[in-house]
Specification:
This protein is mainly alpha-helical and 183 residues long. 45% of the residues lie in helices and 3% in strands. This is Rho termination factor N-terminal domain-containing protein.
Length: 183
């Protein structure tokens, strides 16, 4: 049985130790490492930029900037295995530091389908929306239902970058290009 200290020793020459999930299957990780060294987090991914962030933080901001990262999104394992960060904890930190925020329910209406929008309107006792298209439904919901009444009915909310976070995504585009952004 291998412990986490064994993995930490592998990273002793790094500027900082990558995040290692305490629930990681360390034995399987070590077995793969015996076959190929590329299972280690690359050293360059543990070097902070001039803004004090790691490449994994920039990739997380980029994902938020795309507008598709929600409260329901699974966090990809590459944040831990390639970038050495705890994306869940670091997301909270990026929000605290003003790089990102969780959208309001009204801002996130684009995420839900027309059927859900109609259900929200029905729950509010409203009528006159049956023939509306999704864009019209979004505007109707936003104008007729308060944020307080809408929030509990939203199945998911998106995260996004602030202007400060977006500026970092632009500034560190080279990190994103190395990751291999999807078009």
């Amino acid at each position: 049985m291998t412990d986490l200290k064994t993995i930490e020793r592998l990273y002793q020459e790094y500027p900082e130790t990558p995040y290692i999930n305490p629930n990681r299957d360390v034995d399987t990780f070590m077995a793969k490492l015996d076959v190929q060294k590329e299972h280690l987090v690359p050293k360059r991914n543990m070097e902070r930029n001039e803004d004090g962030l790691l490449p994994g933080h920039i990739i997380l901001l980029w994902r938020l900037d795309l507008g598709t990262f929600t409260t329901d999104s699974a966090i990809p394992r590459y944040f831990e295995y390639i970038y050495g960060i705890d994306a869940e904890t670091d997301l909270a930190r990026l929000i605290d530091e003003g790089y990102a925020y969780q959208m309001s329910a009204k801002e996130a209406l684009y995420l839900v389908n027309a059927g859900t929008l109609k259900k929200i309107l029905k729950n509010a006792g409203l009528s006159g929306y049956s023939s509306m298209k999704k864009d019209e439904l979004i505007k109707f919901v936003a104008s007729k239902i308060s944020e307080e009444d809408l929030a509990p009915q939203m199945p998911l909310i998106a995260y996004t970058t602030t202007e400060k976070g977006h500026d970092l995504v632009v500034k560190y585009d080279d990190v994103i290009q190395k990751h291999g952004p999807k078009g």
